[in-house]
Design brief:
Number of helices: 6
Number of domains: 2
CATH superfamily of the largest domain: Winged helix-like DNA-binding domain superfamily/Winged helix DNA-binding domain
Number of strands: 3
Radius of gyration: 18 Å
CATH class of the largest domain: Mainly Alpha
CATH topology of the largest domain: Arc Repressor Mutant, subunit A
Oligomer: single chain
CATH architecture of the largest domain: Orthogonal Bundle
Structural class: mainly alpha
Order of helices and strands: HHEHHEEHH
Amino acid sequence: MEAFDNELNTALVETFNNILKVEENAVKKSAINLSIGEMHLIEAIDKGDNTGRSISDIANELDITLPSVTVAINKLHKKGYVEKIRCEQDKRVVYILLTRKGKKINSVHRFFHQTMIRNISSQLTKEEKNVFIKGIKNINDFFRKSSEKGDK
């Protein structure tokens, strides 16, 4: 491997792991009884409107199985972060909404991300920001396309 390839590999792996560690530490410090996966599930649920999101919508967005989402939703329901509402037209469909507690915890999570981004952004010049965003978008496109190929 070339020097650049080695450096890029190390930077990607370390960055991914460090983001997870920082996020996990933030959750632990706040004494929240949620895992990172549950936090991301709450984040996905919050993207819905006032009628909620179906379990299949959430599963598709997060690219996880319906049974896994169902189990996780049941745990979040027991903890008081979500409510489940059956569709009037099709009783097989369940919509998931955040409770007041769920909305509050999602606000804390969003604030964590905003603070992280603000801190990173403040250390970059305008030119560096443009290059950084272009690079991140390229990396994301690569992984998205690789993921789509793997799904087929």
